C-alpha cells in the first residue's frame, strides 16, 4: 500500500469523478485508475462503485476513507514537524487587516516577522471585518486583524486585543455634549455617523438595535473620516471608546453595545509552519488572558 494510492482514492471520493480527481492530483486519469485498482487488489475488496454516472464509495470504501484521510494528515503533520525542527520556516503567509486600525501596529509586527524569517513571502490586504472573516474561513487568508461583536466567529480562534464599549461621540455644541450616557431608544432618534455594514463597529451597533434600524446619515469607510464628520458638528459618531480623542464620549445604555478587535485564524488547519510562526509572534502582542485559543 502506497500513500499516493490513498491520496488518489480520497481525491476520487471527494470529486466523485476519476477525471476531476486526476486533474486535482496532476496525474493522468489512467494512472489514477490503475493505482486504485492495485489498492483494491491488495485489500481484496472494491472501494469504489463505478457502475453509475458518478463514482460512489462502497461500504468497504466508506470504512477505509477516514483511515486514508487520517494517514494523509499524519504524513503532512510529520513533514511540517520536520520542517519546523530544522528551522525551515518558509512559504507564503496571507494576512488581512481592518481598515485604519490604530490600536495595533500590524505592519511593525510583520516587519519583525520578516526579519526573523526572510524566506517567507508575506501578503497583506485591507478589508472590512465580514470580508476578512469569510476569507479566513475559506482559506484565502491565514491570519487577520478583525473587529466583531458577541462571540468569536464560527470556525475561528481569536486573541482579543481590545474589548470596548461603543459610545456616541459628539462635538461641542451638540445637544448631548456634556452628558454621561444616552439610552439606545434615544440614540435611535438621532441621525448618526458610522462605519458601513460589514465592519465590527457597525455589527455591534446593529446587534444592539435588534429588529430596529439606526438612522445612519453619514457612512464612512474608515474611523478618521467618521471622527472628522462628528468634529464638524454633523451628529453623533458611533465609535469605540478609544477612538474618541477630540470628541465627548457619551455612553450608550439599555443595552450597552461592545466591540472587539482581535487577531484571528482558522481553528482547524492545516496551518503552514510559516503561518503558525506568525500567529505565535502576533499572539505575544496581546494579553494572554484574552486568548480564546492558541495555535
TrEMBL record:
Specify the HTH lysR-type domain's residue ranges: 1-58
Q: Which InterPro entries match?
A: LysR_HTH_N, LysR_subst-bd, WH-like_DNA-bd_sf, WH_DNA-bd_sf
Q: Keywords of this protein's UniProt record, alphabetized?
A: DNA-binding, Transcription, Transcription regulation
Q: Which PROSITE patterns match?
A: HTH_LYSR
Its family remark reads: Belongs to the LysR transcriptional regulatory family.
State the name under which the record lists this protein: LysR family transcriptional regulator
